[in-house]
Write a structure and sequence with these properties.
CATH topology of the largest domain: Serine Threonine Protein Phosphatase 5, Tetratricopeptide repeat
Structural class: alpha/beta
Mean pLDDT: 82
Low-confidence stretches: 1-5, 42-48
Shape: flat
CATH class of the largest domain: Mainly Alpha
CATH architecture of the largest domain: Alpha Horseshoe
Strand content: 5-15%
């Protein structure tokens, strides 16, 4: 059927030749019903007229009808037809154009077609019923259940001024259909998009994500300029996929949980890693299956892991059309001059068009200004000279409209580029009206864009090249230092102080952390100028510490300590705070030997500088006592330290303060572990009363209190109530921290112990196995907590009649405990239950030798 240009149709019929008879039937039914139908035969050898007919048919048909059969997906042309229709659909009004599937063979639509509405013709012999179903399909009535939602996470708004790039979009889509990433170098299908700054790599990725979103089960945009930004985006994806339950869990573990869940899904996602510095930064964060990856990068060689789409400047015709369309003018000659002056760079063209539209300056006149500015930019600059010129002109125009725009642009230049929360922007300019006017002025010339977070928090985004130019400008005009000071002051004012414990503040921490890290990357040693900088690093590090992101926390705590020692000296209380923080981190990582001297040094500084009765001194006493107790060395000193801490806190903070309760609880457990039940009993009752009053039903710390309370009830042999409390604790932790946080392993082990006492060995073993996996991932194989979990699992296996497996686990635990804790530690001696496994295996002589070595009796 020949297709005239611009002739309109109700349906375009997409099929392979194997269902030619059905195609004729469907065409007849729809035509008789009054519809206009366009049909093409994909078994014919394609030629120029065929391609043109397909192009016109897709463009001018309202709906696409797919006759689905086994060989439908094997054709390049049916796929191209489907993709082209989806692209056209994406540029139409919502619900204006639809895809309809008629199932013609007994196979289920797969992949991108799996969740589309369909009618079934398989096995239907009655002509009347077949006709009814065909008409029902035409009227968009489906036999399928409503399709699931297609998440569209973090993708920036579509750029209304995007133009051209049709060939690059086609190549990108074709590359993403391979089993390798794609890079739009600026890259399981992956693509990389590469090119110089300002060439439009991110814009191309945004357009692809919007135009082809219906080809994917979901799309997730991941800012990847820093590894932390990429991990955070993937951690949020983990929540969407149900791989973690927390809004912001352990980001490293949650990111990997998201990638693991994608590999388990049948549907295909699109992940966009935007502005990756090099392949090494993402090589370990590529999913094995379940996703196509699109990478944008200025790095030039992605051949090892991605198919590349090299992005050049716009062709002259597209650049001219863009300038005229963006400004609403008809001046092709002036647009050509301006486009040539700016080197056809999309970012420069966008700023120029916004400027010309705002000021009514002629293209020729703007070209003259830009040419003069471009000539003054030093050669060898790391960013395009035309971008420097256009950004500088745009800032000048915004400042002419609102003088405060200069200060605001200098402030934004110091932040991370993606999503600067408005709460942070408030620090740039004190007067709200002036600040709003400045934002509006910058927005009018395309220097900032409103880009809210997925949770609705208002934010603006600034292109990273705009920031580079703005930093140079602010340094030249003397506003840079004030901008940095305002940024750090604002971050200190709004970054939560209790970032470790206040779980309600974690979403805000998540929004603000990239901007602290961006400042640290640009100038890691700000302490000599901005006194609050080490404290700010401490808050971010504490946020990372709470979420078991130990390596990130260690770097920031270390930075803060170095700055404080340099600026304040080695005996300052703030230096003691840094030592205390690092010691706590090392303790959690199982490095007891490394933590102990830091705790002692911090205690000595605090006693001297703050006095022996200060609450901070009590904190050092409490945590040093906790460490000594865990190491089981100098137990008399541990008890003395904890009793001092309790007395100080009761006097300074009162008996009901959480810190007082913590010392009371810890002293109770210390006495209990040492078998001093007579002295522990009165403290035991006080601890019970204290804990029962501190059971916030949502706070993660409530889970710790529940576990402590359960341990005390365990002592009273109240296993049923203890189990109920631990199960509550586990639910709180999984919701707040995600399923792979180390605190989860603690609850699982305790629950397993209780189930063992209730004779449910199978469930206890399952929980203990899960706890061991979590511990090994979070802490490594030699951590005392990992090996305590390992020996508990070994005992369960031994009780279940599996001595060979128990022996392997207990031997590993024994070796690790002796290495880390020493031969006399109770956990090391508990690990000698290896001998019990040897007895079960008939290796009695080895068992006796092992017991003799540790001075144990059968």
């Amino acid at each position: 059927m020949p297709v005239a240009h611009n002739e309109r149709y109700d349906f375009f019929l997409s099929r392979r030749g194997s269902v030619a008879a059905v195609a004729q039937e469907v065409t007849n039914v729809l035509t008789e019903t009054g519809y206009r139908v366009n049909v093409q035969d994909y078994d014919f050898r394609p030629g120029a007229s065929f391609v043109e007919a397909m192009h016109e048919g897709i463009k001018n048909s309202r709906d696409l009808v797919i006759l689905y059969c086994a060989d439908y997906e094997t054709s390049f042309y049916t796929r191209k037809e489907f993709a082209s229709f989806v692209a056209e659909q994406g540029q139409s009004l919502p619900d204006e154009r639809h895809i309809i599937v008629l199932r013609c063979e007994d196979i289920s639509p797969r992949g991108l077609l799996a969740d589309l509405p369909f009618q079934d013709l398989v096995g239907v012999k009655d002509p009347a019923e077949r006709k009814r179903r065909i008409i029902a399909a035409a009227e968009r009535q489906s036999q399928a259940a409503p399709p699931p939602p297609r998440p569209f996470i973090g993708v920036p708004p579509r750029i209304a001024s995007f133009t051209g790039r049709a060939d690059e979009l086609d190549r990108l889509d074709a590359n993403l259909m391979h089993d390798k990433p794609a890079a739009v170098t600026q890259a399981v299908g992956r693509a990389a998009v590469q090119g110089m700054g300002g060439v439009g790599k991110t814009s191309l990725a945004i357009e692809y994500a919007h135009r082809y979103r219906k080809l994917y089960a979901g799309v997730c945009w991941c800012p990847a300029e820093t590894r932390t930004g990429l991990l955070s985006a993937l951690a949020n994806l983990a929540v969407t996929l149900g791989a973690t339950a927390a809004d912001e869990a352990n980001i490293e573990k949650s990111a990997r949980a998201a990638l693991g869940r994608l590999a388990e899904l049948r549907a295909m996602w699109l992940l966009v890693y935007d502005n990756v510095s090099s392949p090494d930064e993402v090589a370990d964060l590529l999913p094995s299956a379940g996703a196509r990856i699109l990478i944008t990068s200025r790095f030039s060689d992605w051949r090892e892991i991605a198919d590349e789409v090299t992005l050049d400047v716009l062709p002259p015709a597209e650049a001219i059309a863009f300038l005229q369309s963006r400004t609403g003018r008809s001046d092709a000659l002036g647009a050509r001059t301006l486009a040539e002056t700016l080197g056809y760079l999309p970012l420069a063209l966008d700023h120029a068009a916004a400027y010309c539209r705002r000021t009514q300056v002629r293209f020729d006149d703007y070209a003259g200004k830009a040419s003069s500015l471009t000539a003054s930019v030093p050669r060898g600059s790391s960013y395009p000279r035309s971008v420097t010129a256009t950004v500088d002109l745009a800032i000048s125009q915004a400042v002419a409209q609102c003088a405060a725009a200069e200060a605001l642009m200098a402030f934004l230049a110091q932040c991370a580029p993606e999503r600067v929360p408005m709460l942070l922007v408030e620090g740039a300019i004190d007067d709200e009206i002036e600040r709003r006017e400045a934002i509006a002025a910058l927005n009018e010339v395309s220097l900032v864009k409103h880009d809210p977070f997925d949770d609705g928090t208002q934010a603006v985004t600034v292109h990273r090249l705009v920031q580079v130019v703005a930093r140079v400008r602010s340094k030249a005009n003397g506003s840079a230092q004030d901008a940095v000071g305002r940024l750090i002051a604002r971050l200190l004012a709004i970054y939560p102080k209790e970032s470790y414990s206040d779980w309600r503040s974690w979403p805000l921490c998540h929004h603000l952390t990239p901007h602290v890290l961006a400042r640290r990357a640009r100038c890691p040693d700000d302490a000599s100028v901005f006194a609050g900088w080490p404290e700010l690093l401490d808050r971010v590090a504490s946020y990372f510490h709470r979420h078991a992101a130990y390596s990130q926390a260690a770097q920031l705590f270390g930075n803060a300590l170095a700055m404080r020692e340099k600026v304040l000296g080695s005996e300052h209380p703030d230096t003691a705070t840094s030592l205390h923080n690092i010691a706590l981190l090392l303790h959690d990582q199982g490095d007891y030997a490394g933590a102990r001297p830091l705790h002692r040094r911090a205690l000595k500084i605090r006693e001297k500088a703050l006095g022996p009765e200060h609450p901070d001194t009590a904190s050092s006493l409490h945590n040093l006592a906790s460490l000594l107790h865990d190491q089981r060395i100098d137990l008399a000193e541990a008890r003395s330290l904890q009793e001092r801490a309790l007395a100080i806190r009761e006097k300074a903070l009162g008996p009901d303060h959480p810190d007082t309760a913590a010392s009371l609880q810890h002293l109770t457990f210390m006495l209990r572990d040492w078998g001093d039940f007579a002295e522990a009993q009165p403290l035991h009752e006080r601890a019970l009363a204290s804990l029962k009053g501190r059971l916030d039903p949502e706070h993660p710390d409530a889970a710790n209190n529940l576990n402590k309370l359960a341990a005390l009830l365990y002592d009273k042999r109240d296993f049923a109530e203890a189990r109920r409390l631990v199960e509550r604790a586990l639910a709180i932790q999984e919701k707040a921290l995600g399923p792979e946080h180390p605190d989860i392993a603690t609850s699982l082990t305790m629950l397993a112990v209780l189930l063992k006492h209730q004779h449910d060995l199978a469930e206890a073993r399952s929980l203990q196995e899960r706890a061991l996996v979590i511990r090994e991932k979070a802490h490594g194989s030699e951590h005392p907590g990992t090996n305590w979990t390992r020996i508990r699992l070994a005992l369960l296996l031994l009780m279940g009649g599996r001595p060979t497996e128990a022996l392997a686990l207990s031997e590993t635990a024994l070796a690790a405990h002796e290495k880390v804790l020493g031969r006399d530690h109770p956990w090391t001696k508990e690990s000698t239950r290896t001998a019990d496994a040897l007895d079960r295996l008939g290796r009695n002589a080895e068992a006796e030798a092992l017991r003799a070595r540790y001075g144990l009796r059968v």
